[in-house]
Specification:
By secondary structure, this protein is α/β, with parallel strands linked by helices. The chain contains 6 helices and 10 strands. Helices cover 25% and strands 27% of the residues. The chain is elongated and about 60 Å long.
Length: 197
């Protein structure tokens, strides 16, 4: 019988919900003695919620973990790194080299913006902070010719068949920790801290 409830903080997007549940499934054996409740929190407030006790545990891409965590939060574990590369999702599977000059390609980070801008100067790379669902909608509506995101994000959404191109690190160097997920916990919660074992 579960002894207590472990609250897992999750950002309010479909991607984050899928990501959280996928990692929780992998941790099921380690969490068998607790009841797990997923608590959805607004974007940008999960770490504050974790520190304040609104939730006990949070899962996010290791590449997104800040260098300095708020007081009272510990990084206790990282999953094994899977595919660390960035990928292109485009209409009809077009490769980057096939896109016409001036085509707009959405990217989610300055890291990709700078590297891709040097690789294909004739394309227009735009930093877009939209969710994956919004990027996919913009693609289908013809607002962008494609978008570049980490392969792990596409896999989380189950969109692997939409990948047109995988970029090797000599074209786009992945972010540190890309392809792995970090488990952050609030100090003083033994059931969460036990995941470090």
């Amino acid at each position: 019988m579960a002894s207590r409830t472990l609250k897992v903080g999750c950002r309010e997007t479909e991607f984050c919900r899928r990501q959280t549940h996928a990692i929780l499934d992998r941790l099921a054996a380690d969490l068998s003695d607790v009841k797990v409740e997923v608590v959805q929190l607004p974007e940008g407030s999960v770490l504050d919620g974790l520190a304040a006790g609104v939730c006990d545990l949070h899962i996010r891409g290791a590449r997104e973990v800040p260098l300095e965590l708020p007081e009272g939060i510990r990084l206790v574990a990282c999953t094994e790194r899977t595919d660390p590369f960035d990928v292109l999702v485009s209409r009809e599977g077009a490769l980057l080299e096939d896109l016409p000059d001036g085509a707009v390609v959405g990217v989610e980070s300055s890291r990709v913006l700078v590297q891709m801008g040097a690789f294909r100067e004739e394309l227009e790379f735009q930093r877009m902070d939209d969710s994956l669902d919004q990027l996919y909608h913009a693609l289908n509506e013809g607002e962008i010719a494609g978008f570049i995101v980490p392969a792990e994000d596409v896999a989380t959404m189950g969109w692997q068949e939409s990948v047109a191109e995988v970029f090797p690190p000599d074209i786009v160097l992945p972010a540190a920790g890309q392809g792995a997920f970090a488990i952050l916990v609030r100090e003083g919660v033994p059931e969460a801290e036990a995941l470090a074992a």
